[in-house]
Amino acid sequence: MVNLEWYRTFKEIYENGTLTKASIALYASQPGVSVHLNALEAYVGKKLFERTSRKMIPTEDGKFLYEYIIDSLKKLEIAEQHFKKTTQEKNPSLNIGMCSEMFQLIIEPEIPKLDFDLVARFGAHTDLIKDLNNGILDLVITPKKQNEKKSLVEYIPFSKERIVLIAGNKTDTTKIQEHLKSKDLSKLEEELLQNVWYSSSNEMEHFRRFWFENFNKKPAFKPNYILPNITSIIRCLNNGNGLALVPDFLCQEQILRKEINLVWEGKVKTENTLYFASRTDLKYKKELDTIKNIFTSKMK
């Protein structure tokens, strides 16, 4: 699907003649402008500019596309100016990506204190990293580090998340605790299989990994309830019955309030390193540091 920003980028390159001038007009980085143009050319399947050392010269296809979209873009710009709150100075804007649970727990309470604009996007880590590489996002919080040559993305580790077994406080875990005390993992697994299980579609990898690292086998069962996210799982277990495997930092408050119980941290630590993945050509580094400091202060 085509991105509207690709057309805006195309328009500014066409009217300004160079990538540098277009990036200034768009308040964007020059590599980001190049990424948008390349994406648009790949989408339409035609070369839109001839690249020279001094200027971007539109091809016949480029001229045709410009004439086709310019009126519509101008109408959109007028609408944007009409409905956007006017300010004397453009407010810095940061585009970030992470899982929705992390945003709700870490960032959401701090939003009223921010002195810059923030656009948050949720999704699979692979999709978010792709958007980061394409210049659409400025920062992604991810447990997965990708090693790509000539990438403008740097990964900085800042914390760890540990996958733990939790239970609703109405769950009878007496036999589970007995097997943990006797270190009988075979009987422990049998007992765990007798319970109601919750998981989420984006956490099944953690589920399978915890099971394999602690029982040396893949889980031979499917959770009873597969929910959209971990927040939903915790709400269902709150003063309820059932088991789930979740990152520890997402359920600490509920454990302290005794709404759910911490059952087992595993005989083997199932951990993920969390990274700040950000672009090295980012314009708003001060704002990026603000978001990083929020995370490091809350996830010590």
Summarize the structure.
With 300 residues, this protein is α/β, with parallel strands linked by helices. It folds into three domains: 4-85, Arc Repressor Mutant, subunit A, CATH 1.10.10; 93-160 and 272-299, D-Maltodextrin-Binding Protein, domain 2; 161-271, Periplasmic binding protein-like II (D-Maltodextrin-Binding Protein, domain 2). The chain contains twelve helices and eleven strands.
Question: Could you explain the architecture of this structure?
Answer:
With 300 residues, the chain is an alpha/beta fold. The chain has three domains: 4-85, Arc Repressor Mutant, subunit A (Orthogonal Bundle); 93-160 and 272-299, D-Maltodextrin-Binding Protein, domain 2, CATH 3.40.190.10; 161-271, 3-Layer(aba) Sandwich (D-Maltodextrin-Binding Protein, domain 2), CATH 3.40.190.10. The chain has twelve helices and eleven strands. The protein has helices at residues 4-16, 19-26, 30-44, 60-83, 100-107, 125-133, 174-182, 185-192, 204-215, 230-237, 252-256, 285-298, and strands spanning 49-51, 56-58, 93-98, 117-122, 139-142, 153-168, 197-200, 225-227, 243-247, 260-264, 271-279. Strands 3, 4, 5, 6, 7, 8, 9, 10 and 11 form a nine-stranded mixed β-sheet that branches. A two-stranded antiparallel sheet has the order 1-2. A hairpin with a 4-residue loop joins strand 1 and strand 2 (56-58). Helix 7 packs antiparallel against helix 8. The two termini are 40 Å apart.
List the helices and strands and how they pair.
Blueprint: H1 4-16, H2 19-26, H3 30-44, E1 49-51, E2 56-58, H4 60-83, E3 93-98, H5 100-107, E4 117-122, H6 125-133, E5 139-142, E6 153-168, H7 174-182, H8 185-192, E7 197-200, H9 204-215, E8 225-227, H10 230-237, E9 243-247, H11 252-256, E10 260-264, E11 271-279, H12 285-298
Parallel strand pairs: 3-4, 3-5, 7-8, 7-9
Antiparallel strand pairs: 1-2, 5-11, 6-9, 6-10, 6-11
